């Protein structure tokens, strides 16, 4: 990295977070997963050091930075083998949306806790029949006097068991047209009618996935975030950071896997030479490194555009970054496991579990095929087939 790409402040942040990640490492994550516990100690320490809220406004306890800084935090924790998935959700999506569009009361109530880690918020958009397509969401909110009644279902919602509230994407009826439009609601997890059910996953992660059922959940008027008529704008203000942070998650994971493979290739000797001396081993690892570095550049561009207020430009770059990072991560993990041979499938080396984890960046929060749709339509101006 050169000074043209990354400032001295960013380099210092990267080094400091890397030091925290190394204190915990992959063993910590493996242990918390085995015990069925969330990574509470690492989350708490990251909060106390100011890393969780580095993107949030200083007047509410944050670091006053942006998604560029938060992506560094997640990437470096991932590169140390101890990523925090909820960084994508709590400060990046929910914190950003509330900071940009929330009322003063919402900001005072939620942002300080999100910044120091004492409060955590999940994000609920995905539905069984709609995926992440905001135009097909069926969770609806209707007025009942001064209150809202929210009804619907959500699936694959991360970390609900750790969360104090969930930022729910619902739809309200436009009084002028009768059509449904997306809106965002803060729903405390102890609200009557709010039910969560864990989803059995093959994915080995400390953060669990949940299905939510919202059965006429009664919410006060102040649960609505921002302007009822600007829901789509507010929604995408959270989705762009989500894609950038997913890229950071993938790049960190890929870097971790690559580092393990490179270390093994330097030390593992066959016929008197380290296996890393053979081009059949060295070249695929070099290619994986190149792919990860290129993905990081696009992630940095996306973060820069977003933090500069260019939501349209950030939308294109964030999707490209997420796509590139997901592909690079899958290839890096696959090559790392292959480099180690049988050892790559053992618990001792801890790489095999990443095979499943790496695919998350291809699938969530939006599939690579939907990103290709976005780029072909929005960037290239090609017609839609749907």
Beta-strand share of residues: 15-25%
Task: Write down the overall geometry.
Answer: globular
Total helical segments:
10
The total beta strand count reads 9
Bin the helical content: 40-55%
Sheet with most strands: 7 strands, mixed
Secondary structural class: alpha+beta
CA(first)-CA(last) distance? 42 Å
Which oligomerization state do the chains in this entry correspond to?
A: single chain
Order of helices and strands: HHHHHEEEEEEEHEEHHHH
Radius of gyration, in Å, reads 21 Å
What integer is the average pLDDT?
Answer: 94
- Low-pLDDT regions: none
Can you put this structure into words, describing what you see?
- With 386 residues, the protein is an alpha+beta fold.
- It is 51% helix and 15% strand.
- The chain contains 10 helices and 9 strands.
- It has helices at 8-35, 40-48, 67-79, 86-101, 104-116, 231-267, 279-307, 311-340, 353-363, 368-379; strands at residues 121-124, 140-144, 147-158, 165-173, 180-188, 194-198, 209-219, 269-270, 273-274.
- Strands 1, 2, 3, 4, 5, 6 and 7 form a 7-stranded mixed β-sheet that branches.
- A hairpin with a 2-residue loop joins strand 8 and strand 9 (273-274).
- The radius of gyration is 21 Å and the shape is globular.
């Amino acid at each position: 990295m050169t000074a043209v790409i990354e400032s001295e402040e960013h380099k210092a942040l990267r080094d400091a977070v890397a030091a925290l990640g190394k204190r915990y490492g992959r063993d910590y994550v493996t242990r918390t997963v085995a015990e069925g516990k969330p990574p509470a100690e690492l989350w708490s320490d990251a909060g106390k050091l100011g890393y969780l809220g580095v993107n949030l406004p200083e007047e509410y306890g944050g670091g006053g930075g942006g998604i560029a800084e938060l992506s560094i935090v997640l990437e470096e924790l991932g590169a140390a083998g101890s990523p925090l998935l909820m960084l994508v959700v709590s400060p990046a999506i929910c914190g950003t949306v509330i900071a940009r569009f929330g009322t003063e009361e919402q900001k005072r109530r939620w942002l300080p806790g999100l910044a120091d880690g004492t409060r955590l918020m999940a994000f609920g958009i995905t539905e069984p029949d709609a995926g992440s397509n905001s135009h097909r969401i069926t969770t609806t909110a209707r007025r009942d006097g001064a209150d809202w009644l929210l009804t619907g279902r959500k699936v694959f919602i991360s970390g609900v068991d750790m969360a104090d509230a969930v930022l729910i994407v619902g739809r309200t009826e436009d009084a002028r047209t009768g059509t449904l439009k997306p809106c965002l609601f803060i729903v405390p997890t102890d609200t009557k009618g709010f039910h969560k059910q864990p989803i059995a996953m093959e994915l080995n992660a400390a953060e669990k996935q949940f299905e939510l059922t919202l059965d006429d959940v009664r919410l006060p008027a102040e649960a609505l975030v921002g302007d009822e008529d600007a829901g789509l704008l507010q929604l995408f203000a959270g989705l762009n950071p989500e894609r950038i942070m997913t890229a950071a998650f993938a790049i960190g994971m890929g870097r971790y896997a690559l580092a393990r493979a490179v270390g093994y290739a330097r030390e593992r000797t066959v016929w008197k030479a380290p296996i890393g001396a053979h081009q059949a081993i060295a070249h695929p690892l070099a290619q994986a490194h190149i792919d990860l570095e290129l993905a990081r550049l696009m992630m940095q561009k996306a973060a820069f555009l977003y933090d500069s207020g260019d939501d349209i430009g950030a939308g294109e770059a964030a999707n490209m970054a997420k796509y590139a990072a997901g592909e690079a991560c899958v290839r890096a993990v696959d090559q790392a496991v292959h480099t180690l041979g049988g050892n790559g499938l053992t618990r001792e080396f801890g790489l095999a579990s990443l095979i499943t984890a790496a695919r998350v960046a291809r699938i969530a929060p939006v599939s690579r095929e939907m990103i290709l749709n976005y780029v072909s339509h929005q960037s290239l101006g090609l017609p839609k087939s749907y």
